[in-house]
Amino acid sequence: MKSPPDKEKEFESLIEANRPILTKVCYMYARDPDHFKDLYQETLINLWQSFSRFRGESAPGTWIYRVCINTCISCFRKTRKHDANLSMSDQEMLSLADRACEDHEHARCLREMYGLINQLPALDKAIILMWLDEKSYQEISEVTGLQRNNVAARLHRCKQKLLKMSNS
């Protein structure tokens, strides 16, 4: 059994290595910057609480994705009925996107893409985000609990839907 300082260092290292995943997923489910911070913190709490039970049967990044997406979807389900009309303002989205990318044209494209992705249902949003992070169909399957063939079919439909939305 690891000593508490070793466990904490290992956890901190794992979080630091996967910070972009955590940031991206929480950003896609957040209504505003404060909600983003809440989701991020809630995800860290859930990761810490389940860290000792992580058996290494999947890649650490896959485990982190699963906990993060499950946390965000759970929070989304709890609050969507109460906050159906709340969403990030264009200025808030611009600010978050600009912090992630100094190139304003690139940030504009990212903001547009994430805006379209944000219109997808929760599970489709999770699938497309993992695909954008170059996760394999198998890894996406492990995170979502869907069969590999279902992941491929849903991903294809998501891409078609996003293309249609971007052209309209």
Q: What does this entry show, briefly?
A:
The chain has 168 residues and is mostly helical. It has helices at 4-17, 19-29, 33-51, 60-79, 90-100, 104-117, 122-132, 137-144, 148-167.
Q: What spatial form do the alpha-carbon principal axes imply? A: globular
Cα-to-Cα separation, first versus last residue? 56 Å
Rg, alpha carbons: 17 Å
Biggest sheet layout: none
Which series of helices and strands comes N to C?
HHHHHHHHH
Number of helices: 9
Q: What percentage of amino acids are in beta strands?
A: under 5%
Regions with pLDDT < 50 over 5+ consecutive residues?
A: 82-88
Structural class call reads: mainly alpha
Oligomer: single chain
> Mean of the pLDDT scores?
81
Q: What keyword list fits this structure?
A:
single chain, 168 residues, mainly alpha, 9 helices, globular
Explain this structure to me?
This protein is mostly helical and 168 residues long. It is built from nine helices and no strands. It has helices at 4-17, 19-29, 33-51, 60-79, 90-100, 104-117, 122-132, 137-144, 148-167. The radius of gyration is 17 Å and the shape is globular. Mean pLDDT is 81; it is low at 82-88.
